[in-house]
Amino acid sequence: MKETVCKYTLLIISAIIFCVGACKKDNSKVINERPDPEPIVIFQCPKDGDIYKLIVDTIIFNRKGELYITNGHQITFEYATIPLGVCAKTADSYGTAMYSPMAAIVKTDEGKTREMIWDRKGYIKNMILPEDIERFLTFTDGKKISFELSLLNFNHDIIQTSSMTIIYRERFPDK
After folding, report:
1. Beta carbons of 57 and 122 less than 8 angstroms apart
2. For 35, which DSSP code?
3. Hey, which of 6, 71, 162, 163 has its CA 20 to 30 A from 106?
4. What local confidence, expressed as pLDDT, does residue 90 receive?
């Protein structure tokens, strides 16, 4: 019993000595100013009343099934997200529960609808399914179709509906 008490006493004394020594450091720095938050980029949106703007609203598929955005940058199907920007006229509504997307409804060019989880961001792989890609690969060069994306809030109310254009270009990017 005496041995256990002695061990705990030594442990407590060494902890106190460590704390006293650590608090007397001369090189400690106090941060007086709060760092600036990251700026929110606000976009001019095509439709009045939109809360969000699809930053990538056009996707190009080539004959290999690769995805690109219009500037020629290749995106990975498995990990590519659907980035949203904040609209200038409705920026005050951004971030409120009523206007935060939790799910989305995708309406294909064939009129089929399906629901997808949004979970902080939407993924292209949940909007465009592998069977859609197989169908795109049968298109003629230059064919354009449109998918509608309806963002839903926590109550499954539609926040807004935006369209995404999908283009099949056999030899994109031109090399």
Report:
1. no
2. P
3. 71
4. 85
Q: Tokens 């256990």, residue? A: 4
Q: Which domains occur in the chain, in start order?
A: 52-168 (2.60.40)
Q: What residue has token string 């007397």?
A: 24
**Neighbouring-strand partners of residue 162:** 149
> What's the pLDDT score for residue 16?
72
d(CA 48, CA 70): 25
Quick: pLDDT tens for 131-143: 998 999 999 999 9
Q: Are 61 and 19 in contact (CB under 8 A)?
A: no
Please name the helix (run of DSSP H) or strand (run of DSSP E) that holds residue 175, with its range, or none: none
Backbone dihedral region for residue 63 (phi beyond 0: left; psi -120 to 50: alpha; all else: beta):
alpha
Q: Which residue has the tokens 């409120």?
A: 96
Contact 91, 42 (CB under 8 A): yes
Characterize the bridge pairing of strands 158-168 and 58-61. Answer: parallel
Among 158, 135, 155, residue whose Cα is nearest residue 145? 135
Using H for helix, E for strand and C for coil, what is the string for 82-121? Answer: ECEEEECCCHHHCCCHHHCCCEEEEECCCCCEEEEECCCC
Residue with tokens 């590519």: 80
pLDDT higher at 20 or 132: 132
- pLDDT reading at 71 higher than 80: yes
